[in-house]
């Protein structure tokens, strides 16, 4: 990933160039931050705070532009964009049949770029193409680390192609990213497995 890509992120609402009057498809979502790294942070539930709800493209971009970028987060914090009425608490019983894809990229400077593209896909129609038609996306997340960045895609049901990690990474690059990146690790884990490990 070249630095110049990070300096030209589309922080403004996309336009339908073919038909400017046509409404851009939008899936209502909630924008959350997990502030585990800030002892004095105000929070709800598991140190998770809702930053805003979005039911239109305009509302989404208002919240998105007014919020910190992933590169400004502490290394123990994370952003989540969850489709309504979900929130990023995998412990909830309604998520017991689901899981998440996790992809780790080796350059933390790419956090803003990855999050921008992933978030736009999450509130549009493109992200659903990542999973089987019988499954559905609950939300997405991003978490910067000292030397890498982790992105997550939460699914309502288990992904039965969980062993096809290379194919998933290729599909992610093809569908979501205009400028593909390489991932150091790609794996899928059920929320039942996460509960057993006792860690988020």
UniProtKB/TrEMBL annotation:
Stated name of the protein: Eukaryotic translation initiation factor 4E type
PANTHER family: EUKARYOTIC TRANSLATION INITIATION FACTOR 4E HOMOLOGOUS PROTEIN, ISOFORM B, EUKARYOTIC TRANSLATION INITIATION FACTOR 4E RELATED
Organism: Echinococcus granulosus (Hydatid tapeworm)
The entry's keywords: Initiation factor, Protein biosynthesis, RNA-binding
Family annotation (SUPFAM superfamilies): eIF4e-like
A single cellular component GO annotation: eukaryotic translation initiation factor 4F complex
Keyword RNA-binding in record: yes
GO molecular function terms attached to this record: RNA 7-methylguanosine cap binding; translation initiation factor activity
Similarity field: Belongs to the eukaryotic initiation factor 4E family.
InterPro entries linked: TIF_eIF4e-like, TIF_eIF_4E
Database matches in Pfam families: IF4E (PF01652)
